[in-house]
Specification:
By secondary structure, the chain is α+β, with helices and mostly antiparallel strands. It has two domains: 433 residues, MFS general substrate transporter like domains (Growth Hormone, Chain: A, Up-down Bundle), CATH 1.20.1250; 64 residues. The chain is built from 21 helices and five strands. A hairpin with a 2-residue loop joins strand 3 and strand 4.
Length: 512
């Protein structure tokens, strides 16, 4: 490829990637702040229910993504790639900014979670149109035989967006006091997005339409009814279903397990201090991100199928051993406690004239440097302990572990391994999908299986897996923390079998 054409495609990559990264940042800020958001927009009397409600709202943005894929995919195949993902960028940025402006549950009651849900749905619709447009746009600029390499740069933006969201949150926490961040500072990452969107809009405004689509439009070969031609045509529908059940379904659960589930697992099951989790996850993502390009490039040489299927198989086999090692790394029951450093501090917090909280804070230190803090809050009214719905005393317990350097690097390595699985299944997927469908219905046809696989199967993973873990814990299962993994293992397993049997290597040469 000539220097001139290389320079041209790098402009395309840069403009597409910046916008897509910002959209992922906007989308994932909500997930990155799920633990904090659960205390702001949902009733505080049941922390577990509030957290599950937050995850459900987070998942709602994923569930609606296929509808965004249909709506914006149709527009993309009718009027063009460029203008469609300009609209999605502005919609995403506006919704994200407004989430940061919504008053808390204490201020406006149930209007708070309702408004969050509405804006979350708008985010999902926008993302449903963004990814297909960016991937198609880049692929249609890429030379023949190099689509895997060039589209893999777009694949890095999802993980990079999560990384940027974690870094913005970490910077905000560092600059503000713990009280200030909890009170209003958590809103800052949402507000920051509007500045990023404006910059991206200016960059994208100067982009040209995809040459492949422009040529098809000039020759009158664009689709009159992309939805009908994509899903009403039995031949094309067969490829849509194969893309979903043989590739994107498994890719989706591996993606979310290796990043979001790992983050929530460390924060809510392992009880590792939030900033430490953000830091170690950020390091693992930073180290793993270049492998998107490595496996995208490799898929041009070896084929998309072999790399994606290998990534799924490794995840299926290794998830349980990896998460068992993660949990054991911070399990204080097997660590040596420094008993002489254990402290118990009791305090009282007045809620109003009749209600008060009795707070008991226990701190412990362990020989390996791990610090443990348990805050038990007993809710009382007129000197009598309040009762929860199940008849038990209304007591909230929050455990926080600050881990030592050795455990931190062990967790970084274990998350990094999961990110490698992600890069294997995700690096080649854009080129794989683009090559399956003809130009005139490509945006619509590739967007739907991608967003069903990622939005439905992947997006529901945090809520479903957390529910499995909670249920197993309540049932007294000693390995309750592994139960949430059955969902991604089964989904990826089904996808692996279908992909191995029905995906033919020749698929990727049909429309190349």
């Amino acid at each position: 490829m000539s220097k001139k054409s290389t320079k041209g495609i790098w402009k395309v990559i840069s403009a597409s990637s910046v916008g897509t990264l910002i959209e992922w940042y906007d989308f994932y800020i909500f997930g990155s702040l799920a633990v904090v958001i659960s205390t702001k927009f949902f009733p505080a009397d049941n922390p577990t229910a509030a957290f599950l409600s937050t995850l459900a709202t987070f998942a709602a943005g994923f569930v609606v993504r296929p509808f965004g894929a249909l709506f914006f995919g149709r527009l993309g195949d009718l009027i063009g790639r460029k203008y469609t993902f300009m609209v999605t960028l502005l919609l995403m940025g506006g919704a994200t900014f407004l989430i940061g402006c919504i008053p808390s549950y204490e201020t406006i009651g149930f209007m708070a979670p309702l408004l969050v849900l509405i804006l979350r749905l708008l985010q999902g619709l926008a993302l449903g149109g963004e990814y297909g447009g960016a991937a198609t746009y880049v692929a249609e600029h890429a030379p023949k035989g190099e689509k895997g390499y060039w589209t893999s740069w777009i694949q890095t933006t999802a993980t990079a967006g999560l990384f940027v969201s974690l870094m913005v949150i970490l910077a905000t926490k560092t600059l503000l006091s713990k009280e200030a961040f909890d009170e209003w500072g958590w809103r800052v990452p949402f507000w920051v997005s509007i500045l990023m969107v404006m910059v991206s809009y200016i960059i994208r405004k100067n982009m040209h339409e995809s040459p492949v689509f422009a040529k098809a439009k000039a020759e009158g070969k664009t689709s009159v009814n992309p939805l009908k031609e994509s899903f009403g045509n039995k031949y094309n529908l067969k490829f849509v279903l194969l893309a979903l059940f043989g590739a994107t379904m498994g890719q989706g659960v591996v993606w979310y397990t290796g990043q979001f589930y790992a983050m929530n697992f460390m924060k809510t099951v392992m009880n590792v201090e939030s900033s430490q989790v953000d830091t170690l996850l950020g390091i693992a993502l930073l180290c793993g991100t270049p492998f998107f390009v490595v496996f995208g490039w490799l898929s041009d040489k070896m084929g998309r199928k072999s790399i994606m299927m290998a990534g799924m198989l490794l995840a299926i086999v290794l998830y349980r051993p990896i998460y068992k090692a993660m949990y054991n790394a911070t399990d204080v029951s097997v660590k040596t406690e420094l008993v002489d450093q254990t402290k118990l501090v009791a305090s009282v917090k007045d809620i109003d004239a009749t209600k008060k909280d009795s707070i008991y804070t226990t701190t412990k230190m362990y020989a390996d440097g791990t610090a443990f803090e348990e805050v038990k809050t007993v809710h009382m009214e007129n000197g009598v302990r309040l009762k929860a719905d199940d008849g038990k005393d209304k007591v909230d317990t929050k455990v926080t572990k600050t881990i030592n350097s050795s455990d931190k690097w062990m967790l970084i390595f274990l998350v990094f391994v999961q990110v490698i699985f992600v890069t294997m299944v995700y690096g080649p997927i854009a080129a794989f999908l683009v090559e399956m469908f003809p130009v005139k219905i490509r945006y619509t046809s590739m967007s739907l299986p991608y967003h069903v696989g990622n939005g439905i199967f992947g997006g529901l993973l945090p809520a479903i897996s957390t529910y499995f873990v909670t249920t197993a814990k309540d049932a007294g299962d000693p390995e309750f923390y592994l139960e949430g993994l059955w969902y991604p293992i089964i989904i990826a397993g089904v996808c692996f079998v279908i992909g191995m049997i029905y995906i033919d290597k020749k698929i990727n040469t049909i429309h190349d």
